Amino acid sequence: MGASSPLRKKRVVLLGATGSIGENTLRVLAAHRDRLELVGVAARANWEKLATITGQFGVRDVALFEPGACAAARAHPAAFPPGTRVHGGLDGLNALARLPEADIVLVAVVGTTGLEPALTALAAGKDLALASKEILVLAGKFVMAEARRHGGRLLPVDSEHNAVFQCLEGHRATAGAADAASGVRRVVLTASGGAFRDWPVERLAAATPADALKHPNWAMGPKITVDSATLANKGLELIEAQWLFGLQPGQCAAVLHPQSIVHCLVEFADGAMLAQLCPPSMTFPIQHALLYPERVPGADAGLDLSRLLNLEFRPVDAARFPMLQLAQAAMAAGGVAPAIYNAANELAVAAFLDGRIPFLAIPQVVEHTLATIRNFEPDVLSAVVAIDAESRRVAAGHLQTFSS
Ligand SMILES: NC(=O)c1ccc[n+]([C@@H]2O[C@H](COP(=O)([O-])OP(=O)(O)OC[C@H]3O[C@@H](n4cnc5c(N)ncnc54)[C@H](OP(=O)(O)O)[C@@H]3O)[C@@H](O)[C@H]2O)c1
Among 378, 352, 377, 354, which residue's Cα sits nearest to residue 366? Predict the structure, then answer.
C-alpha cells in the first residue's frame, strides 16, 4: 500500500462482475467513486459486458475463465480501453486476486471456482470480501486458516453473515476478536422461504424451473434462486456461519421470515438478542464489506418506518425442506460431508434447471451422494478438492438414472 492519506481510495478486484452480485457491486462502486476504485474484473464468458464495465470504470485488468471467451476478447481489443490486459483461465483469476495495487478482492463467482483465487488473495495479504458461500462450505477450515496466517480480513458479503458480523461487532470489542463467539448462545439466520414457501407440498412434484426462479423478495442468479426454493441456500449459509464465526453446529439455526428485512438474530448467553435490519438489497452488505469499517450514505434508501412494517417469524417446516435437514446433518457430521453436500447440490440444481430431473429429485441426488461417499476429516486442501470431484462423479452417475 502506498502512503496513507484519509482520501486514499480502496482498490477493489471483483470476480464475478457480470452476475447479480457483480451488478450490485457496480452500483455501490458508482455511488462511491471518491472512496472506491475498481482495478480488476472477471467473469466466466461474458466478455462484452466486461468490456462495457472496463469502459465505465477505467479498469485495466480483466480475466475470463473460458478460453474461447478470452480469445474473443483478445480478438476485439477496440472493445476495451487502450492498455487493458486480458488474462485467461483460473491463472487469470489468480492474477487478478494478487494484483499488487488491489486492497480488497470480492469473490462473487457462482460455485467453488473462486476457492483458489480466494486463497491467492489472502496469501497476497488482501482483504477478502466473500459472496460465494460454496467456498467456505467446501474448504472453510483451510480458508479460515489462510486468513489467520496472513492477517487479511474476511468480510462476509452474504446478507445474513454480514448481518451477524455487524451484530457481533460490539461484542467482539468486549470479548476480544479471537473470542467473538464466546457468550453467544446461537446465531439464527432468516430465510424468506423462496418461491415455494406458500405452495401446498403436494404441488412441489410438478414445480418447474420457471416456478423456482420466481423469488418473492430477491433478484439473484439462477443457482442461488433454486437453492432458496429448496432451502439448500440456508443450509449452505449455516455451514458458512459455523466457519466464519467459530460456532458449533448446534449454535446455527434458521427461521422463516417472509419479509427479508431482518437478516439475522444473534442470541447471547443471557437471552438477549440482537438483530440486523435493512431492505432486501445486496447493496447494503456489499457496501458494508467494501467500506468497512466506514459508514456513509449508500446506494439505496434504508427502511421507511413511517409506513407499516410487519415482521413475521415462523419455524421452518422440516418436511417441506429436506435440503435444509440434509445440510444440518452434513454440518453435524463435519469432515468432508459439507463438501459432498455442496457438490451434489450444484449438479442436481444444474440438472433441474436443464429440465433433466424434477424438483423433488434434488434432495434424492444429494442424499444418495452423501450416503455413497465415506466421510473423513481432511487434513490437506487437496483431500477436499478430490472429494469435490468424486462427489460430482457420484452425483452425475445418479443423475443418469433419472433419464433411463
Ligand atoms: N445474488 C445474490 O443476491 C447473492 C447473495 C448472497 C450470496 N450470493 C453468492 O454469490 C455468488 C454469485 O451469485 P450471483 O447470484 O451473483 O450469480 P450469477 O448472477 O449467476 O453470476 C455469476 C457470476 O460468476 C461468473 N462466473 C461463473 N463461473 C465462473 C468461472 N468459472 N470463472 C469466473 N467467473 C465465473 C459469471 O460470469 P458469466 O456472466 O460470464 O457467466 C457471473 O459474473 C454465488 O456463490 C451466490 O451463492 C449471491
Answer: 352
- Protein residue whose Cα sits closest to atom 46 of ligand 1: 132
- What's the pLDDT band for 319 if we cut at 50, 70, 90? confident
- Give me the mean pLDDT over the 80-98 stretch: 97
Q: Give the whole-number percent of the chain exceeding pLDDT 70.
A: 96
* Contact predicate 345/394, CB 8 Å: no
Question: What phi and psi values does residue 40 have, to the nearest 5 degrees?
Answer: -155, 140
CB 389 within 8 A of CB 337: no
Whether residue 144 contacts residue 228, with contact meaning beta carbons closer than 8 Å, is answered with: no
Q: Which residues line the pocket of ligand 1, CB cutoff 6 A? A: 16-22, 42-46, 65, 93, 108-110, 113, 131-134, 158, 218, 220-221, 224, 282
C-alpha of residue 162 to centroid of ligand 1, in Å:
18
- Domains of the chain, with CATH numbers? 10-156 (3.40.50.720), 164-279+313-330 (no CATH), 334-404 (1.10.1740.10)
The answer to whether the predicted template modeling score (pTM) of the entire model surpasses 0.85 is yes
Per-residue pLDDT of 210-232, as tens digits, reads 999 998 888 889 999 999 999 99
Q: What is the pLDDT of residues 123-180, one digit of tens each?
A: 999 999 999 999 999 999 999 999 999 998 999 999 999 999 999 997 775 655 455 6
Rounded to whole angstroms, the Cα distance separating 139 from 123 reads 15
Give the ligand 1 atom nearest the CA of 111. 45
Task: Give the ligand 1 atom nearest the CA of 159.
Answer: 6
Distance from Cα 175 to the centre of ligand 1, integer Å: 35
From the CA of 310, how far away is ligand 1's center (Å)?
Answer: 31
Ligand 1 mean position, distance from CA 170 (Å): 31
Mutate to test the pocket of ligand 1, among 65, 109, 238, 345 (most ligand atoms within 8 A of CB): 109
Q: Residue by residue, what is the 3-state secondary structure of 141-158?
A: HHHHHHHHHHCCCEEECC
Q: Average pLDDT of 228-241? A: 97
Q: Which helix (H) or strand (E) holds 232?
A: helix 232-245
pLDDT attached to residue 308:
87
Q: In this structure, are residues 78 and 102 in contact, taking their beta carbons and an 8 Å threshold? A: no
